[in-house]
Amino acid sequence: MLNDRPFKMRGENMTRIETFVAAAFAFAVTMLVISVGNVPETMQDFVDATKQIPAFTASCALIMWIWHTHAVWCRRYGLEDGMTIFLSASLIILVLTYIYPLRLMMQALFNRMSNGYFPMEMTINHVWELRFMFAFYAIGFLLLSLNFIALYIYALRNKDSLALDELEYFDSQTEIYMWSIGSGISLLSLLFSLWLPTHLIGFSGYVLFVLFPLLYGHGFYRDSKRRLIIEEFDYNN
Asked: Contact, 94 vs 69, CB < 8 A?
């Protein structure tokens, strides 16, 4: 019977792939901590270290979000084949490649929001350096979004062997649409970083905040359609 349960968890036990990815993400968080610097020796060093907390917290939250998204995918489908290994390994490479740039971007964000109170380790002296930083980060999020799109498309290709019901198929499509929005916004950020005039270059970063209302609206729309599917099934049965 079709019901409101989000998914039948086909990977109830952690697979070797999920375990390896979880360990890699734990290492990534450790890199964030280690990169903060030496143990403070003076009170001023301690105060300066505390100013890194917002950037570290925001970076850690994003890493945990990515880890949780992959973990949910593993629990939903329980796949452990060659394509799953390839896509999961690609995800690990992306995360480990972008872990330090992610922290720099968060430092830049809080530095800008606090008018310089929160420090930024890297000094940017030229416009091309700022463009490169925005473009590099946008490419990373674009590749991340495409990676999750590929994971869910692959799961849908195995819908028969996984015995996905109508709601599970619908929810899988919802994830693809969600990450497609992410890829579109990151592509827009990349184009802004390359072509916007100097005085507007900040919008390359600000456009990423559009992602939140778009995802909220997308989620509300898809939840409404999901309820209609359930109501139609109940009516026909």
From this structure: no
